[in-house]
């Protein structure tokens, strides 16, 4: 860990909050992508069956 | 166009048209402010221009969802779309009628409400002037928002969310004119900018409103 | 077989899906690599600023996210125009897909800006013109996304949100100048501004460039992935309608 001095809380909060937001966005993107793909595959399957 | 305008004004003034409602809302907001921040003139007077502008802005917002909704329900909007008047003209007339029934009375009532908030004397005139110049922009922007949401069942709340951020420039310049007027400062630049915002809205927004209406009526 | 290749051929949904499928993993990996390298470099291996102390490390998040917050809106504006003029469905869906990414970037820029401001200005929130402009941009994103969510018919939604995006862009620029007019800034620009650091020294500048590249790639990868999802969702919607009719 680098020595963040007296601003450790601020720098940590900035990186932590940003990580939460960006990881959350990526997770939501992947999760919705998977869900929609599965539903579409199921619908295509029903149509072709 | 003139007939659409006069018809809308007549409908609004008639009972149940909501003409008095926005004025009453404006009065109530202004009366509530001292309960929130205390009755001292030293506190009230500096924030009076901002409060009055905000109150007028919110009062404008109240009647927006009925700009097109009533005409949509009884099918008049479809008739207007096929009328010989271009839809841009309809949009302009609708915004004009909204301004005549909300913006204009609010501007004229504001100086009297300013007395309640202890606004110093030269401020009353400039408050009314700033509202007279600025509220047409509010009506035009609001009409655009109403055109975007006319096809939706519960458009009212969404309408506020869409329209309020668009009100930022008008509010900044308008409140600044009123504030400088009350403090006796030079107010040429903000007044010119406020006029420019309104002029730009008059020139451009009817086209956007008409485009949105065409999509909504499809 | 059409041999003429133009940019517009990618606007065909099937082509778009086929082209982006092999591209996406590479883009994602590159974005992740740039972000990891840039942020680790910036966080661990850059010196503290003599005046701002370690808070200078926040620029590795703040500057790239602020850039992408604006560029995302700009991309939405271009995509909306393409939809209105050429009626390419992928374009409308890409604009829809970019909005949540843009709003997250705006939020990151706001949070890091406020956190950076707390020791510099002694308060978590100051109505600094730039921070205020980003807050207004955030509201524009919210309105745009809310309008997409509220309208059922996809083409109507695409049309109306495009018109809103156009008008919103004009008013966003106008608000930027109005906000500058309203508050010229409590803090004299350059002496405390983040931008000054960009010009100071390569020790800060190079990792910052890597981070910006990472954010750009992340944005592109996310928008591509989300556009693919939107295309699938639209096809699914169409299939479900057909099933219900049958």
TrEMBL record, chain A:
* UniProt topology in membrane: Single-pass membrane protein
> What InterPro entries does the record point to?
Haem_export_protD_CcmD
Question: Keywords on this record?
Answer: Cell inner membrane, Cell membrane, Cytochrome c-type biogenesis, Membrane, Transmembrane, Transmembrane helix, Transport
Q: Which GO terms describe its cellular component?
A: plasma membrane
Localization (cell)? Cell inner membrane
Transmembrane ranges, per UniProt, are: 12-31
Name one matching Pfam family. CcmD
Q: Which GO terms describe its biological process?
A: cytochrome complex assembly; heme transport
The similarity annotation says: Belongs to the CcmD/CycX/HelD family.
The record describes the protein's role as:
Required for the export of heme to the periplasm for the biogenesis of c-type cytochromes.
Kindly provide the name given to this protein in its UniProt entry: Heme exporter protein D
UniProtKB/TrEMBL annotation, chain B:
Question: Mind telling me which residue stretches traverse the membrane in this protein?
Answer: 12-37, 43-64, 99-119, 125-150, 157-178, 190-213
Keyword check for ATP-binding, yes or no: no
Gene Ontology CC annotations of this record: plasma membrane
Where is the secretion signal located? none
Q: How does this protein lie in the membrane?
A: Multi-pass membrane protein
User: Thylakoid as a keyword?
Assistant: no
Q: Name one GO molecular function term.
A: heme transmembrane transporter activity
Return the InterPro entries for the record: Cyt_c_biogenesis_CcmB (IPR003544), Cyt_c_CcmB_bac (IPR026031)
Where is this chain's protein located in or outside the cell?
Cell inner membrane
The protein's UniProt keywords, in alphabetical order, are: Cell inner membrane, Cell membrane, Cytochrome c-type biogenesis, Membrane, Transmembrane, Transmembrane helix, Transport
What is a biological process (GO) this protein takes part in? cytochrome complex assembly
User: So what family is this one in?
Assistant: Belongs to the CcmB/CycW/HelB family.
Function comment: Required for the export of heme to the periplasm for the biogenesis of c-type cytochromes.
Q: Which NCBIfam families match?
A: ccmB
Protein known as: Heme exporter protein B
Species assigned in the record: Palleronia pelagia
* Taxonomic lineage from the root: Bacteria, Pseudomonadati, Pseudomonadota, Alphaproteobacteria, Rhodobacterales
Automatic annotation (TrEMBL), chain C:
- What are the protein's UniProt keywords? Cell inner membrane, Cell membrane, Cytochrome c-type biogenesis, Membrane, Transmembrane, Transmembrane helix, Transport
Its membrane topology, per UniProt? Multi-pass membrane protein
The Cytochrome c assembly protein domain covers 8-187
At the top level of its lineage, which domain of life is listed?
Answer: Bacteria
Q: Where are the transmembrane segments?
A: 23-45, 65-85, 97-119, 131-151, 163-183, 203-225
Q: Which Pfam families match?
A: Cytochrom_C_asm
Q: Does the keyword Cell membrane apply?
A: yes
Quick check: keyword Translocase in the entry? Answer: no
Record's subcellular location? Cell inner membrane; Membrane
The biological process GO terms on file are:
cytochrome complex assembly
Q: Quick one: where is this thing mainly located?
A: membrane
Q: Which GO terms describe its molecular function?
A: heme binding; heme transmembrane transporter activity
InterPro entries, alphabetically? Answer: Cyt_c_assembly, Cyt_c_biogenesis_CcmC, Cyt_c_biogenesis_CcsA/CcmC
GO cellular component annotations of the record = plasma membrane
Q: Which family does it belong to?
A: Belongs to the CcmC/CycZ/HelC family.
Which NCBIfam families does the record match to this protein?
A: ccmC (TIGR01191)
Q: What does this protein do?
A: Required for the export of heme to the periplasm for the biogenesis of c-type cytochromes.
Q: What name does UniProt use for this protein?
A: Heme exporter protein C
Q: Which gene encodes it?
A: ccmC
